[in-house]
Amino acid sequence: YAKAVIARRAKLAASLAAELGRSDEEIEVARRAGRLHDLGMIAVPEELLTKAGPLSAAEFSEIRKHPKIGADLLRPYAEFGEVARFVRGHHERYDGTGYPDGAAGAAIPWGAQVLAAAEIYDALVSDRIYRTERMSPESACARMGELAGNAVDPEVYRALMTVVARRHALEFLPDEQPGGHHIALPLAPALELLRQ
Questions:
Q1: If you count DSSP H runs as helices and E runs as strands, how many of each does the chain have, helices first?
Q2: Which of 25, 61, 101, 149 fits a 20 to 30 Å CA distance from 110?
Q3: What pLDDT, in 10s, does the model give residues 81-130?
């Protein structure tokens, strides 16, 4: 995986944790888990990771092993205990149809639910080898709405929509210059403008 993909997902996971009111320590755990969530992919054959066409059932079975492998690699290190739980559960689905354990609802660790939403959203708005066109943030949000209550925890979905809306607003805040040019603002002043 590219560093940029990992960095985006880790940042989004931390933003979701913050929006959900988690502590600074929990936000950092979410960020660390975001950086390591696909660690188990190191055990997946390269040809599966770069395959342009659909995966066979056997190939998908290989891919499905990565959350458990990643968690198993982290588990021996005490400082990664919670991260390992989040990594293992990041492909669980809110409705219980995910993997590797088929956990549902509150049985899925909160951080795994955050990682799942971050990974799905990022996949929708990013270029993918198996798809010709990425979704706009608006289309991705609509798709995520369809997944709320099924693949994604509804509370995490609401947090995601808030985070995405805030990011979108920050990208398009008008400056004070004539001609309607747009500028990026530092976060604190931009948030103050949003509160007005």
A1: 10, 0
A2: 61
A3: 999 999 999 999 999 999 999 999 999 999 999 999 999 999 999 876 66
Tokens 């693949």, residue located: 151
Burial class (CB in 10 A: 0-12, 13-18, 19+), 196: exposed
Angle formed by the axes of helices 154-171 and 137-147, nearest 10°? 170
Tokens of 178: 């004539």
Is the separation of the CB atoms in 127 and 115 below 8 Å?
Answer: no
State the pTM of this model: 0.82
Determine the 3-state secondary structure of 152 from DSSP.
Answer: strand
Rounded to a whole number, what is the distance in angstroms from the first to the last CA of the chain?
A: 40
Query: CB–CB of 23/3 below 8 Å?
Result: no
